[in-house]
Amino acid sequence: MAFYPDERLGLFIDGANFYSALRALDIEIDYSRLLDEFRRRGRLVRANYYTALVEDQEFSPLKKMVDWLDYNGFTIITKSAKEYTDISSGRKRIKGDMDVDITVDALSAADWLDHIILFSGDGDFCPLVKAIQRKGVRVSVVSTTLSNPPVASDDLRRVADSFIELSDLAPLLGRPLRDDDDAGAL
C-alpha cells in the first residue's frame, strides 16, 4: 500500500460494513491506533464514520462507541434506522443504509484530498470509486476477502487503486476478541 507523507488523506468508514468485516475476522479495532496509523502515512485531514442508529433503544453499545469516536477525532454521520422483524426468519433487523451519505461526502472531499481510504467492501461503491479517480484522487479500499463469504466485493477490489486486507492491518490496529467481549463492542 503506497502512501506519501505530503498527501492529504481522508478516511470514510462504512460502519455497518466495517463491523461485519471485523466480526468475520474476530478482530477488535482500537480506533485511536487507526487514526495514529494513518496520521503516520500522510496528512490525515478527515476521518468520517457513518452509521445508522435506532433512536428508540434505551441502551445501545453502538451509541457509546459513536460518542467516544465523536470526542476522539472522528466526524460522525448518523441517520435514524428502523427496526423491523424479518418475516421469513423471525429475526429482528435494522434498516439504515448510509451509502448515499458516504458517496456525497467522498465526492465533495475529492476536491481537496489526494487519497481516500474507503473502509467498506460494498460493491455498490464501484461507481463512486471511479468518479473519485476521474478527479485525480487515489482510492484505497479496506475490507476482507478472508471471510466466508468474503465481505469485499471482487468488483470493488478491481476498481480500487489498492486493496488493503483488513487482517493485514490487525497487528497494527487491533487485538483478537476475548471470550468475555459482548457482541456490540468494537
Any chance you could write out the topology, listing elements then pairs?
Layout: E1 8-14, H1 15-25, E2 27-29, H2 31-41, E3 43-54, H3 61-71, E4 75-85, E5 92-95, H4 99-109, E6 115-119, H5 126-134, E7 138-143, H6 154-159, E8 162-165, H7 166-173, E9 174-176
Summary, kept brief:
With 186 residues, the chain is of the alpha/beta class. It contains 7 helices and 9 strands.
How would you characterize this protein structure?
The chain has 186 residues and is of the alpha/beta class. It has one domain: 3-Layer(aba) Sandwich (Rossmann fold), CATH 3.40.50.1010. It is built from 7 helices and 9 strands. The strands form 2 sheets. The chain has a 7-stranded mixed beta sheet with strand order 5-4-3-1-6-7-8, with helices on both faces.
Order of helices and strands: EHEHEHEEHEHEHEHE
Which strands sit side by side, in order, in the main sheet? 5-4-3-1-6-7-8
Query: What is the H level of CATH, i.e. the homologous superfamily?
Result: 5'-nuclease
End-to-end C-alpha gap? 25 Å
Number of domains: 1
Average pLDDT score: 88
Structural class: alpha/beta
Residue stretches low in confidence (pLDDT < 50, at least 5 long) are 180-186
* Gyration radius over CA: 16 Å
Share of β-strand residues: 25-35%
**The top level CATH class name:** Alpha Beta
Portion of residues within helices: 25-40%
